[in-house]
Amino acid sequence: MTSGPRRAPRGQATGYDPERAAFWNGPGRRVARRNLLLSVLTEHIGFSVWSIWSVLVLFMSPRNGLDFTPGEKLLLVVTPTVVGALLRIPYSHAVLRFGGRTWTVLTTGLLLIPTALTWYFVQRPGTSLWVFLVIAALTGSGGGSFGSSMTNIARFYPRRHQGWALGVNAGGGNLGVAVVQAVGVVVIATAGDTSPSLVAAVYLPLLVLATLLAAAGMDDLDPGPVPRGVIREGLRQPDTWWICLLYVGTFGSFIGYGFAFGLVLQAQFGSSALQAASCAVVGPLLGSLARPLGGRLADRWGGARVTAAVFVLLSAGTAVLLVASARSSAALFVTAFTVLFVLTGAGNGAVYRMIPWVLARRSHAPGAGAPEPGGAEADALRAQRLTAAVIGVTGAAGALGGAAVNLVFRAAYDRHGSGEPAFWAFLLCYVLCAVVVRVRYLRPDAGPAGGDPEPVREPEPTHV
Questions:
Q1: b/e for 35-55, b at 16 or more Cβ within 10 A?
Q2: 220 φ, ψ (degrees, to nearest 5)
Q3: Four-way CATH pick for 21-366+373-449: 3.40.50.2000, 1.20.1260.10, 3.30.450.20, 1.20.1250.20
Q4: Strand runs (DSSP E) across 34-181, as ranges?
Q5: What contacts 200, CB < 8 A, 6 or more positions away?
Q6: Predicted confidence (pLDDT) per residue in 23-43, tens digit
Q7: Contact call for residues 379 and 231 (beta carbons, < 8 A)
Q8: What mean pLDDT comes out for the span 373-390?
Q9: Which residues, at least 6 apart from 83, have a Cβ–Cβ distance to it below 8 Å?
Q10: Per residue in 335-360, pLDDT tens?
Q11: Domain range list for the chain
């Protein structure tokens, strides 16, 4: 008889092993789904707080006493992006030490501080730029939660379902970018573009609710001893850096475009705040919904195959953007950008699907080194911790890629008054990424160490 995970009063589950089919088909699936649901909720709100400045800068004008240049507004957008990126590595490590429930409650609750500061100071005309930069940096902690959330959820699901689970978790978080844009549209449409504090006010009660729900419903899995040097070990893996490059191309594009798209429309076509915010909702929304689809396709066809196809299509879509920019066609420009959002979302799911497979297959490849003392169970635990480290590093690299996208846009518009130089740079990046996937993971001799193994058709349990 298979016993379920034991849940201590403070929410710690022990004896959890999703790779055992009987356990997964019994209590495991139910526990995993509950934690996934609450993880999506908290990460979603974290993403909204992280990206809130991409909306607030659209409100800033001489009329409300917050008159900043386009370059200063882009700086307010870049700052939380960089902070969130840098926090992803320690966050992904911390969740293994403290547990998913404990860490989620702590980090979600702490987001109340920058959100309350945002609400207060955007009502104060004449507030200095440095004050907003400090607050924007604090909101960056909402982006760091991605690393801990993804690491935590990967531990609840068996490898054969991780593409879907990680896609749903990340897609739900990514939706926060679209939802905060939608909140901005509603505020502008109902209260005008002089009430930015209302955007922050929406999230104060939501943060309280999410914190309480996480405390009541999430679980801390047995962390065990967290070995020192696991991040260094991950950094020594060549595949970590290749996957980071690919994730810069997908998630870096998604978050960079999501943060900057409204400002790009204002700079390129002179759109109003309402027009820019309205257009900026659709792309991140569809891209977020596409992420679980990308994970599901990668589960079926292999992460590298799907990733390669995404980069080929991203290259074609960027070429269309260049045509739209040259013709000053706003309709074609918005349409092409929306397609890019969908592709980057699907690519995010496919790239993350590659991580556990690449590390697991590399560890069993010839020359991978001696097995861990303790046999297969110790090897699996080592691979899990290494996967957590690489997830954190990859997430950080992707978010830094988003900051780079915004900096490239800033340079293009400051120096050339057009986004075309930026689009050329993005096109070259996508072509490079497509070549990397082909050479590194899809060549005929890649073997079992490649990132695109044949999908494993493990028998599903016959009972639910």
A1: bbebbbbbbbbbbbbbbbbbb
A2: -100, 115
A3: 1.20.1250.20
A4: none
A5: 52, 56, 115, 116, 118, 119, 122
A6: 888 888 899 999 999 999 999
A7: no
A8: 63
A9: 137, 138, 139, 140, 141, 143, 144
A10: 999 999 999 999 988 887 888 777 76
A11: 21-366+373-449
pTM above 0.85, yes or no: no
Strand partners, 6: 14
Residue 193 to residue 382: CA distance in whole angstroms: 52
pLDDT at 373 over 60: no
Cβ-based neighbours of 5, under 8 Å, separated by 6 or more = 13, 14, 15, 16, 27, 28, 31, 219
Predicted pLDDT of residue 170: 80
Question: How long a stretch of residues is the chain?
Answer: 464
Q: What is the rounded distance in angstroms from the CA atom of residue 327 to the CA atom of residue 316?
A: 17
Q: How far apart, in whole angstroms, are the C-alpha atoms of residue 176 and residue 284?
A: 9
Q: With beta carbons less than 8 A apart as the criterion, state whether 18 and 153 touch.
A: no
Count of other CB atoms within 10 angstroms of residue 93: 20
